[in-house]
Amino acid sequence: MSSTDDYDSLSKEEREARDKADRAREEAEQAALPYKWTQELGELDISVPVPEGTRARDLVVVIGKKKLSVGLKGKDAIMDGELCMEIKVEESTWTLEDNKVVLIHLEKLNKERWWENVLTHHPKIDTRKIEPKNSKLSDLDGETRGMVEKMMFDNQQRHMGKPTSDELKKMEALKRFQAAHPELDFSNAKIS
C-alpha cells in the first residue's frame, strides 16, 4: 500500500483509478481464500466449502478466543491460524449446511472495530472503504422498535428540559388519582 501523502497529491481521476485497482486486487485476494466472509461491527460470518457429503463428525473445528481452525479429520486444515482480534468464544458457533459448507459465526469482543482480515496471515481489506448497512427503524421487530423510539423520545425531551415518557406517565397517574380523590390536599406533595 502506498502512503496517504502520496494518495492526497493525486488528481480525482488518479485516485479513482487507484481505488478501482486496489478494490480489484482486494477482491482477487479475498476470492483466492479457501473461505468467504462478511462482517458487521459486532460479528463475523464465515463460510468454508468442504467436500460434498461431509458429515459433522468428519470435521475438526476449533474456535478459540484468538484462534480458528477448520479442517477434515486426518487431512491438513482448510484454514488455521490466529484471529485478527479476540472473539467471545461462548457466543460463537459453527454448523454444517447441506453437508458441503461449514458456517461459522463469530461474536467480536470489540464491537466497535472492523476486522481487516479473519486470520492474521491472510490478505487485508481496507476497512476505511467499508460501508455499513444502515439499519432502519422499520427493520426492527415491534418490541425493539418501541424501545428505540422511547429512548429517542426521552433523549429529545431531556434536551429540551421536558419530562421523559416515564415522568409523563407518573404525572398522568397523579392527575387521575387527584381527580378520583378531591377530598385529599396535594398542595405540599413532592413528586419523585
UniProtKB/TrEMBL annotation:
Q: Which GO terms describe its cellular component?
A: cytoplasm
Where the protein is mainly located, per its record? cytoplasm
Which domain of life does the UniProt lineage start with? Eukaryota
What keyword terms does UniProt attach to this protein? Cytoplasm
Q: GO molecular function terms here?
A: unfolded protein binding
Entries under SUPFAM superfamilies matching the protein = HSP20-like chaperones
Give an example GO biological process: protein folding
Localization recorded for this chain is: Cytoplasm
- What PROSITE patterns does this protein's entry cite? CS
Q: Where is the composition biased (Basic and acidic residues)?
A: 9-28
Region described as Disordered: 1-32
Signal peptide bounds = none
Q: Which residues form the CS domain?
A: 30-119
Decide whether keyword Cytoplasm is in the record. yes
Q: Which Pfam families match?
A: CS (PF04969)
User: Function, please?
Assistant: Required for nuclear movement. May interact between microtubules and nuclei and/or may be involved in the generation of force used to move nuclei during interphase.
Q: What is this protein called?
A: Nuclear movement protein nudC
